Amino acid sequence: MQWAERKLWRPFMHRTHNPGDIQRSLLREILHRQVDTVFGRKYSFNRIQSYDDYRSALPVHGYEDLRPYIDEQDRRREPVLTVEQPIQFAQTSGTTGQPKFIPICLHTRASIATYQGLFTFAQYQGVSDIFDGYILVLSGQSVEGYLPTGTPYGSMSGLLFEGLPPPIRRKDVLPPHVRAMTDVKAKYWHIAARALAEPTLSVMAAPNPTTVLKLMEVIRGHYWDLLDVLSSRNGEVEGVPRASARRLAELKAYGNHQEKLTITDLWPDVKAVITWTGGNCGVLIPRLKLLLPKTTALIEMGYLSSECLGSLNVDVVNNRCIPTFQDNVFEFVPLSDWECENHNTFLLDEVEVGGKYQLVVTTPAGLYRYAMNDIVEVTGRFNGTPTIRFVQKGKGVTNITGEKLYEHHVTTAVEAVCAHGGLRSDFYIMLADVEAQRYTLYLESPVPTVDVDAGVERAIAELNVEFKAKRESGRLHSLVVRYLCPGTSDAYRNHCLALGQRDSQFKLVKLQYRHDCSFDFSPHLWEERRQ
After folding, report:
1. Engineered SS bond to 193: which of 8, 240, 435, 467, CB 3.0-4.6 Å?
2. Against a cut of 0.85, is the pTM above it?
3. For strand 480-484 and strand 405-406, is the pairing parallel, antiparallel, or unpaired?
4. pLDDT below 70 — which residues of the chain?
5. Which tens digits make up the pLDDT trace of 265-274?
6. Domains of the chain with bracketed CATH
7. CB of 204 within 8 A of CB of 270?
């Protein structure tokens, strides 16, 4: 930690006083490095002298705009998007049925290690004795498979784990083979067993609080089975070490009320839980707090995605996060301008506190003016750098527990299932219920004889790998379909117009969050009509 303070923290703190110049310098550096790529020649990187030139030369891109370049570079092994060849990809769900593969270069891995060094020091500085005990990091794998070209792909959470400082990473209670397990139920069982065996956990980390809640659900539901394995030599056969006699005695003492067990009961010395606390995850934070000792710090993990590590928590006591201005170039588009053809954009030193913006990023790994479809709010300033918090995904995309479901997934799945079952419905809406951790599809149609619930869920799982994984792990509950009576679509439209939408500009958003939808569907349900 002394080394991290001297080599990483102090130089970084110095840079936070002048992020605007660093952003402009970083943009020039990225363009100069990639000037001879196929993409760089197409957009004449050699002629771009300023940010205004850059904004004029390049449109805002989505992933599908860049996919052909990413695929071509991986296939040809030539400088198409970047001079440096990606060594692997971070996989995440895409707007279409194909996953997104985000390039990871050698320098990306180095940036992740620096990021984790800074974040680890911020935790050490802000929470007393945070690393005294063992840690439990609930993450994916850095390598989950290989493309036809042989290039590996995996999860950003796995890459973040590997980027932890080695002395911290060695304190994790999970061995590599557990992290690599593909059977989700077995994996959670092994995580629960190894976590229970260790009484001195001081840190728990998971990108989404649903993962911690799921772990506690597994422990409560299989408590005595877990204790049987931890107390017998059979555990060694199953790859779970025996717990100490003292630890077993502690655990057995809780056995009379295992259905109400909390983290406070099992690991009273937990100093911090590191997770997302903003956006829709904030809905679950009160439930998580009920499980924790009152002294446990809830540390915001920051604005992170497969595309880029977007913010760093520099003040874990007050959860103040600043954009990673030394690694990525940020453009901020005011929400009121986002739908305009020629919207205004602002750089990091030009944003206003209290403003809400759509984010556009440029990364050294080949994402140029990339629309994140994320809304952030500027909450204050840290030295000379704005602090930001994630508010929500943009329109047409929801995210309960990391699945990032897009409207296109829903429309494709629903229309395919309806066509297969001989149904027709011109009006349907999928609502994401964060608190209930499930999706509900409202469909204007008589109750059919075909199993629409299972069919739509299967179709979405085929289109979205993250949705499939979250359903298999139980972090998402099964989809529910509710059938609406004729005329609901008119009632919904009239409701929206009464709220101020213009009739000529009315557009049905078929995927929304429940808390954003003020229309009451209950009077329009077929079952209500029957009653």
Report:
1. 240
2. no
3. unpaired
4. 95-97, 233-238, 449, 500-507, 528-531
5. 999 999 999 9
6. 2-106+302-393 (no CATH), 127-300 (no CATH), 397-530 (3.30.300)
7. yes
